[in-house]
Amino acid sequence: MLSYINRLFDLAPYLHPNTSTSRRQLQIQAYVWRYLAKAGFWFHSLPLPRPPKHTFVKAFTTGNYGRSGSKGTVYLYFYLPEGFQPKRRKHPVIVNLHGGGFTMGSATDDRRWAGAALQNTTAVFVSVEYRLAPENPFPVAVEDCCEAILHLAANSEGYGIDPYRIALSGFSAGANLVFTVPLMLSSWQTRSLADTDLPQLPSYDIVSIVAFYPPLDFRVTRDSKRASSKRPDKALPTVLTKLFDASYMPEPSNASSPFASPAAASSDMLRQALPSGYIGLYSCEWDTLNAEGLAFAKRLEHLGKSVEYESMPEVVHGFDKAPNPLSVDPKADLFYRKACVILRQAIDQEAQKSPT
How far apart (Å, rounded) are the C-alpha atoms in residues 131 and 50? Predict the structure, then answer.
């Protein structure tokens, strides 16, 4: 069946993904996979205990800071913790960025992770519905998520959140964004300080990052990543990775941008942009991204960052999102709770420093 799907959606003929014809073909394929993914997440939501539903949704217009000039609407899905009392105190906030190869997925995909975060921390959980490729290729997703952080910081009083206790979490493509977003925000901050005619950024602080199975280096070919994998037979289908890459990165030269590949960032950029500690990076043993996850974690540690790294044994990419209507992999809950420990430590320690 999978081989038939690969032939049906084969992207090999699309040597020029920037042409209008091929972009339309990519969009059609993306629509099909989005529908299939939506169905899969419906099955994923069935096992008990059921994941929480969002409390409310807020929309804002993006395109105020980024260089792409792409304006659009971004939706923020809010999950409020028990005992939420914004008039009495400001709550920390976990900003979550979903996966899906920058091409599919939605802000509600990580509801089980939201449930774990609500149960194990006092934070407000906000999941970002950023715009997807191929309609919105790189760097739109990064810019949307940057502006989501700035929107939350600028409106923190109304949302009852503490802009100096922001944590980022993400899965797959979203786990790439939890590193590229701070890098881009840091560059925006530097640019705004150098040019007073540019809009000034609101004050905020990212105190923790949790990344689950992130793609960190688009400069490395998919074939090379498969060759380094312990179980290349467990890799994501080629039909999907071709779709992801052609949709998000139509200009191959962008793969060397630190805002696409955090592994391409200079040491100075990483030191300046990322929090000094409370970084959790979890890869999957049978994933083609496992090796780059380990390499990046070691690099951050060499730069003086405090990193908790673990390769989740004998699991595939996205194992915690399996569309099993009967049960959820218990390993997912284990690593969610480990990640929550990091978030809770960051939130508690930074609460002593927060000026709010």
Answer: 27
